[in-house]
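Before surveying the methods themselves, we first show a specimen of the format, giving the amino acid sequence and backbone structure tokens:

:::
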Amino acid sequence: MLFGSSGIRRLFDREFLMLSLDVGCVVGSGLGSVITARDTRTTGKILQDAFMSGAVYSGAEVYDGGIAPTPTVAYAAKERDAGCCVTASHNPENYNGLKLINPDGSAFTKKQQEITEEMLSRGVHGDWKKQGVIRTTDIIEPHKEAILRSVQVSGDMEMVVDCGGGAGCMITPILLKDLGVKVHCINCNVSGRFPRPSEPLEKNLSYISNMVKKTGSCGAVIHDGDADRFMAFDEKGRFVGGDKMLILFAEYLDAKKVVTTQDASMAIEEVADVHRTPVGDSFVSEELISWGDFGGEPSGSWVFPNHSLCPDGIYAAALFCKIASENSISSLVDEMPDYPLLRSSYACKDAQGVLLEMGAEIPTDGIRVEGEDGWCLVRASGTEPKVRITAEGKTVSIARQMEEKGLSLLKSAGKRYKQSQ
């Protein structure tokens, strides 16, 4: 399967370079214009060049946005027929990927993915007399200006900003300054290497709490490699988990209908009507086309359909600053419903094979086991060779029991899978 839960993603090698050329040929075929950009990885330029060459070969007019976040590419795609961001998001630097985007900001649907793969298998043949052209363009400024028109921050405030050396460096610090926020930047330089693990997990951000306290900031804004994700700390220097962030945005926006994923806490159901999808922001975006006021997943992807159907960590950062300028984030978080929720992951060379052995129809969707006062979800990661287990219960004891149940199912399936090889 070429596509995972967030586009095409794999280790960088010659095969991926050639694949990028071929995907460009397919995406450019029959389209008038395509917008592209890349995150800060050192392999991004050559992969983007390969993709653009393929699209030009197929006759498309290609716009090169340089280094820019995925949501910035998605916003620019409104003026084009499709978009492509060369990024592996939160994966380590030796990975890279291709996120293919529709004009409304949504990721390519399953149907579009199937068509793309079918066309790749047949090959696309261009005409040397009908080649396209590559043009450079600024996509940062229009995205920034659109957010400034939509979000205003009241009063003086300070905020720690950690872009993790990713593409968010190109826009978030400038955007927040233009909003009137005094910004304390860390890891906001483009170097091609990530100074910390890119995934915005609490364990990767141990230094942020002291920075928030030392600077007297209202909190901290955190991005991953392509800034489609956003996570935060409150003014007390506490990490705000993704399930809390989902509720924070839903309540502030007065969203009555929320789309989220199977691994999100059941607490969201106490503040809104909820539709759940498989894990992956593309599924959330696709559901929001027909239902919902707001959507997101606990990993840090937040989708504001009135703005874009792409998870926009830049917009989310600005909105968080607005909320923090009007409220005590810690007070809002402390008032939220809360249940013990455990998340763990296990390295697995063939996670998809093991999940199929377990009985999952789609490994990345996984298997969800319901209990009387809790649940667990076991699924293959769509971006890494891992199996992820999420468990929640009305009490810590129930949550642990559900996690053990999921782990037991995983171990049994793993043994059967090995024996069958």
In short: The mean pLDDT is 95. The CA atoms of residues 301 and 375 lie 22 Å apart. The longest strand covers residues 386-393. The chain is about 35% helix and 25% strand.
